[in-house]
Amino acid sequence: MTETLAHAGDADEAHDRFRARKVSSEVEARPLSAKLSEPKTFNPAARKAYYFYLMAPAIALLAFISLYPFFWLIIMAFQKGDMGPVEWVGFKNFADLASDGRFLSGWVLLLKYSAMCLFLQVGIGVLLAIIVNGSRYEKFLVTALLMPMMMAPAVAGLLWMFLYNGTFGWYHWIFQSLGILGSGSILSSAQTSMYAIVLVDVWQWTPLITLIALAGLKRVPRDQMEANMVDGASPARNFVAIVLPNLYPVLLIAVLLRFMDNFRFIDHILVLTGGGPANSTKILPVYLFEVAFKFFDLGRGAAIALVLLVVTIILGKILVGVFDRPTTGGR
């Protein structure tokens, strides 16, 4: 019996030893985290106003360069700003533009010029990007294609003026050999001069479209293309269904850049034709240059520039809507 009591005592002791301890409800389950004191520093954090003070001179300079001419342009558009005394004329400059034949024809030529440039540059640029992408000589080809873009537009105009020369121009000889041109120069005919300046713009700025499209091709998901090809899609169908929707955002940037540049850059046109022959290449920016800086009618020129700015913004919004619609639909 004594042994039985001893065994019972050992069992109770073992049970008490391995029994879970009761934790008081007053003790928190998680220990409190100790908050470390921040180390002392000799360079305390600057206030936000400090960074504004640093940027204030640059902001003031940019505002003076951009905003001051813009508001002065608006003021001049309502004045008679020729060589005589300045006179406030209200909306007369804008009203006179409605009956100006050269102003209206300048719009027609500008839209025609921009449409041809954009169509050729986007088409050729995307084609070159597809050819260059993944090529063995991709780095060399990209470097070679970017060389025309690094040239100043006025220098490019001088270069092509020599190439178009009716006496010793190389391109003039090629066009005549192919039967495209007659005895006259391509720049001296009202029927061919517009195509001549379009060719210069396409030669110089298509590399920009190629570079942007090439960057867009790098982000096309390869798994989607491979899955589409497994389903039996042809390369053309794969390009339309997979590649082209992924190129829409970058093509929008490229088209907007070139669209705005076509409305601004007239250097090569002034060098090659000066708006001629017979005003066949006198697009609206060229006409604006003549009115403001040849005839010194600054009020009329300011009105033309303001109308050009407003229409450019409106057409830019339309282009954004056109290019953004396929992307939204694809989602």
Largest sheet geometry: 2 strands, antiparallel
Helix/strand-derived category reads mainly alpha
* Tally of contiguous helical segments: 13
Considering DSSP H and I runs of 4 or more, what fraction of the residues is helical? 55-70%
Shape: globular
The percentage of residues in β strands lies in under 5%
In CATH, the homologous superfamily of one domain goes by the name MetI-like
- What is the alpha-carbon Rg in Å? 35 Å
Q: What pattern of helices and strands is seen along the backbone? A: HHEEHHHHHHHHHHH
Architecture overview:
The chain is an all-alpha fold. It has 13 helices and two strands. The chain has a two-stranded antiparallel sheet with strand order 1-2. 22% of the residues are buried. The longest helix is centred in the C-terminal third of the chain and has 33 residues. It is globular and about 70 Å long. It has a domain of 228 residues: MetI-like (MetI-like fold, Orthogonal Bundle), CATH 1.10.3720. Helix 8 packs across helix 10 and helix 9 runs antiparallel to helix 10.
Characteristic terms for this protein:
mainly alpha, two-stranded antiparallel sheet, 13 helices, disordered C terminus
Describe the protein's topology.
Layout: H1 2-18, H2 48-77, E1 79-80, E2 87-88, H3 92-97, H4 101-132, H5 138-145, H6 153-163, H7 170-177, H8 193-218, H9 222-230, H10 235-262, H11 267-272, H12 284-293, H13 298-330
Helix pairs in contact: 2-13, 4-8, 4-10, 4-12, 8-10, 9-10, 10-13, 12-13
Compact description:
The protein contains 13 helices and two strands.
